[in-house]
Amino acid sequence: MNFNHMSVATKLWLAVSAIVLSLAVLIGFAAVRSARLQAETTVTLQALSDRVKAANVWTGLAETNAVRTRAVITTFDPGIEEAFTDAMATTAKKMAEVQKSIETMSLSPEELAQMKKIDASQKLMLEIQGKASQLKSEGNSEEAQKVIKEQYNPAVTTYLANLRDLVQQEEAATLKYSEEMGQARNMTVRIAGIAVLIILVGILVGAGVLIRSIRRPLDQANDLAARIAQGDLSAHIDTSRGDEFGALMKSLARMNESLARMVQQVRQSTDSIATASAEIATGNHDLSVRTEQTSSNLQSTAAAMEELTSTVQHSADNARQASQLAASASSVAQKGGAVVQQVVSTMEEINTSSKKIADIIGVIDGIAFQTNILALNAAVEAARAGEQGRGFAVVAGEVRSLAGRSAEAAKEIKGLINTSVDKVESGTQLVTDAGATMNDIVQSVRRVADVIGEITAASSEQSAGISQVNNSIANLDQMTQQNAALVEQSAAAAQSMREQADQLAQAVAVFKVNGMAAVPQRQIKDITPRPAPAQKLDSPPAAPKAALSKAADKPAAVPAPAPTVSAKADADEWETF
């Protein structure tokens, strides 16, 4: 696997893992070796200590038995001899056990040779001891003592010297083994130190390699960023690495390519922007001239509308006066109609009363007729009564006469009443006709008043509409003035945009793209004419105060933003309107 294609995290983990693994191996080796040395030292030193102890015990027992032997051989006390004999046997048995235990131990060649010497001196000592014991048992005590002094004591001395040599050998072996173990431990420490040194050297070498693998791409990225900052976008970027720095270099390469494309596009667009801004300024100048003409025309239109407003207001005043006169005539006609209605009502009441009187006269006529009938009947009855009814007949005749005159009078009154009723009906009909005519007059006057009112309302509406038109014209004039100011601002903005395009072109001219050196940006001369301010008439017509105040109160209409048009130097043209 290529080292440059590894990620930085993988490299760091590999380095840390190698360090940890090396330290773990070193620590494990030191721990195992130390444990093994410690165990071996413990076992060996224990064995050596046991041998030294056994040799010392053996030497002590040998000295004790030698003393006892001399005492038994040289004494003449049977009690001492008897007491020491058993002890000597026990001690000899212990000595044999100690000797056997030493012989079973792992002995060196020197120790085996020393054991042979001890064994030989022991046999000689025991032979001399047996010889002395036999001489004493035979009663030759002096000869036995002589053997003890001349043979046994030197043999014992040799035997004990050999035992002491064994003890010294064991002690020397123990000391030597301790020194060897110390040297082994020192060797372990030296090996561990050398291993640590090797690991440190490996860490330093690996760190150098790792730092170099990190530092080189960082230096390359830094150099590339510096070249980009200086405007050089033509650098070749190595993107062959597969780690994070390779990804960084690829990102820087993409950024470099994007910047190069952007600079080329900006270089290609600056001339188009400058040309378009100059055309916009020219169009703004033409628009300013047309705006001035429009403002002048609007002022003339405002003057004409003012005259029309005055005429319509005069007509509206005349219509209002006619409406007032028609209203007065309508009021008088309404009053006359009311009086006629009252007369008609009175005549109808008189006609009703006359009819009631005629009815009453008819009743009186009927009563007179019935009275006449009754008087006639009474006269007939009186005639039948003869002399006795003559007076009653006279009264009945008078009554009949009165009834006849009453009937005649009632007929005459009825005739007069009927004549009056006919005349009242004729007068009532005439009054009714007069009332209907009066109502027609009132309705006609009302219609005339309504028509005049409609004319007045229409004149008022026309006056209000003309006032609104005048206000609108005033607003249009104001907006035209504002448009002229906006045109000037637009021209200034176009000039500023062209200047900014020049600055942008100069800013991107320092970049070097695709092996091409930076080129100076050409300057475009100022071709934008300054629009003159909108001229006002020397004697503008006096607009009505209300219209001016309303126009002043209304906010100026803000023109909607024009849609964005991409300027192209080779195709787009400015259209005047």
Describe the structure.
The protein has 577 residues and is mostly helical. It is built from 7 helices and no strands. The model is unreliable at 527-577 (pLDDT under 50). It starts with 7 loop residues before the first helix and ends in a 24-residue tail after the last helix. It has helices at 8-74, 78-104, 109-137, 141-229, 244-385, 390-508, 545-553. α1 (8-74) runs antiparallel to α4, α4 packs across α5 and α5 runs antiparallel to α6 (390-508). The relative contact order is 0.08.
Give me the CATH architecture of the largest domain, please. Orthogonal Bundle
Please give the number of β-strands: 0
Mean of pLDDT: 74
Apparent shape: elongated
| Helical fraction | over 70%
Query: What profile does the largest beta sheet have?
Result: none
Annotation field: number of helices = 7
**Regarding CATH, which class of the largest domain?**
Mainly Alpha
| Topology order in helix (H) and strand (E) letters | HHHHHHH
The radius of gyration over CA amounts to: 80 Å
Strand content: under 5%
Considering the chains and any ligands shown, give keywords for the structure.
mainly alpha; Four Helix Bundle (Hemerythrin (Met), subunit A); Helix Hairpins; 7 helices; 84% helix; disordered C terminus
